[in-house]
Amino acid sequence: MKQALIFPGQGAQYVGMGKDFYDNYKECKEIFDQADDALSMHLSKLIFEGPAEDLTQTSHSQLAIYVMSMAIKQLIDVRPDTCAGLSLGEYSAVVASGRLSFEDGLKLVQARGQFMQEACVQNPGTMAVVLGLPEALVDGIIHDMQGKHKVWVANLNCPRQVVLAGTKEGIAAAGPIMKEKGAKRYMELDVSGAFHSELMKPAQDKLEPVVDAAPFSESNVGLVMNVPGNYVASLDEVRHFLKEQVVHPVKWEKGVHAMDAHGIERYIEIGPGKTLAGMNRKIGVKGSTISIEKVGDLDAIT
User: Fold this and answer.
1) 184-241 residue pLDDT tens
2) Percentage of the chain with pLDDT > 90?
3) Rounded distance, CA 41 to CA 25, Å?
4) Is 98 left (phi over 0), alpha (psi -120 to 50) or beta?
5) Residue 15, number of CB atoms within 10 A of its CB
6) Domain-by-domain residue ranges, the chain?
7) Per the residue annotation, which of 196, 197, 248, 291 is the catalytic one?
8) 125-188 in CATH: which number?
9) How far is CA 104 from the centre of its chain?
10) What percent of the chain has pLDDT over 70?
11) Residue 76: is it exposed, middle or buried by C-beta count within 10 angstroms (0-12/13-18/19+)?
12) Comparing C-alpha atoms, which of 175, 170, 171 is closest to residue 186?
């Protein structure tokens, strides 16, 4: 059976996630403890006890989701054909595919989260989701707005679900236009910045030398990345697209179609929430999807 491991991104975090794995499996506890030691902070305490407002900070939430996902991955006795992750989850996918060690991945995620948080302060912005409009129509509207407002397409998640990023003024201005064009819903998101847009350029510039210095390794496990929305072969491409992803749209739906066309028969979502499983249903993949975020979910893997 061709199986893909898929990993969620920022926004999926919640206080208490992963605690049952920490309490019940030594190999999971070791991952949380290793992260605490490497970061010289009690990340696991923040994940398990909160407070939620501290956990949701970009510099903390990205680390928290990465560490929880990697802890659960220790228990998944599956040799994947392919790995993929949504936004931050792409780092989990790179590690799960064998191209980077857990600790080196942790360093990259720590840098990415910190640099993105700093960029949020330097270039304030926000995001919104548009439901019910085709991608091409949203693209056209955004293109027409860009002479007056800083707004970009940030995520192409699943059919008729497009996430925008931009200045607060730009995101506010886009709402009435999207509704006028027939959007079923336009909802501003509770995020700290305009991720996957040009407002994150300062973060990309700082992240570039960190990614270039990371010791990546070759792997024969397939890797689908967000920027091209397709399989990526060389390590030079892996480095390039990790850096580009900070300021370019996440083409998640396109990447899932690539995995579907490749013949993936089962998708295993690893980490907090079941968002990716929901997207798979909307995309209409031929394979099945299971989500592993609680110890009881492990029974689904046979």
Assistant:
1) 999 999 888 999 999 999 999 999 999 999 999 999 999 999 999 999 999 999 999 9
2) 97
3) 22
4) left
5) 16
6) 3-121+198-300, 125-188
7) 196
8) 3.30.70.250
9) 18
10) 100
11) middle
12) 175
Could you say which architecture CATH assigns to the domain 3-121+198-300? 3-Layer(aba) Sandwich (3.40)
Q: What is the pLDDT of residues 38-55, one digit of tens each?
A: 999 999 999 999 999 999
Q: pLDDT tens digits for 80-138? A: 999 999 999 999 999 999 999 999 999 999 999 999 999 999 999 999 999 999 999 99
Question: Is there a shared CATH topology between the 3-121+198-300 domain and the 125-188 domain?
Answer: no
| Three-class secondary structure assignment of 224-284 | EECCCCEECCCHHHHHHHHHHCCCCCECHHHHHHHHHHHCCCEEEEECCCCHHHHHHHHHC
The yes-or-no answer on residue 87 being catalytic is yes
User: Looking at this protein, which amino acid is placed at residue 107?
Assistant: K
The reported pTM is 0.96
Classify residue 156 by burial, with Cβ atoms within 10 Å: 0-12, 13-18, 19+.
buried
Closest to 62 measured CA to CA, from 215, 231, 192, 222: 192
Among candidate residues 87, 92, 192, 291, the one labeled active-site is: 87
Contact partners, residue 291, CB within 8 Å, separation at least 6:
269, 273, 274, 276, 277, 297
